């Protein structure tokens, strides 16, 4: 399988695995989101960008439709923000501040 194929299928598989634990199916509640962040993010570069202890703030930032759960679109936004942070870390390139509140890396492409 090509690398991008793997990335896409992994994102979907991880979301579905954790979203079916508790709460609504195919959505992540606070506990499920916390598990994803703690168990599926292991690299120090990304782990340092996540404050898993402050899950309330993470939920508030990600939960754009304010239903108390993270749907797949909101989860993808989170993964995209982490990817942007990692990109900026690797390239040393900065940029403008993210729009919206409390984005962890403070840069956008």
From TrEMBL:
**Domain called EF-hand: residue spans:** 50-85
Q: Supply the SUPFAM superfamilies for this chain.
A: EF-hand
Q: Which InterPro entries match?
A: EF-hand-dom_pair (IPR011992), EF_Hand_1_Ca_BS (IPR018247), EF_hand_dom (IPR002048), S-100_dom (IPR034325), S100_Ca-bd_sub (IPR013787)
Gene behind the chain: s100w
Starting at the broadest rank, the lineage of the source organism is: Eukaryota, Metazoa, Chordata, Craniata, Vertebrata
* Protein name listed in UniProt: S100 calcium binding protein W
A Gene Ontology term for the protein's cellular component: perinuclear region of cytoplasm
Species: Lates calcarifer
Transmembrane annotation, as ranges = none
Supply one GO molecular-function term: transition metal ion binding
- Mind listing the UniProt keywords for this protein, alphabetically? Calcium, Metal-binding
Instruction: Please provide an example of a Pfam family that matches this protein in its UniProt record.
Output: EF-hand_1
Keyword Glycosyltransferase set for record = no
């Amino acid at each position: 399988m090509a690398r991008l194929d793997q990335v896409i299928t992994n994102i979907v598989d991880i979301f579905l695995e954790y979203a079916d634990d508790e709460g609504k199916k195919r959505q992540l509640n606070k506990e499920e989101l916390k598990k994803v962040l703690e168990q599926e993010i292991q690299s120090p570069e990304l782990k340092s960008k996540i404050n898993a202890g402050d899950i309330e703030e993470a939920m508030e930032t990600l939960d754009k439709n304010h239903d108390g759960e993270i749907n797949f679109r909101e989860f993808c936004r989170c993964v995209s923000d982490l990817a942007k942070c990692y990109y900026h870390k690797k390239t040393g390139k900065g940029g403008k501040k993210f729009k919206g509140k409390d984005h962890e890396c403070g840069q956008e492409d």
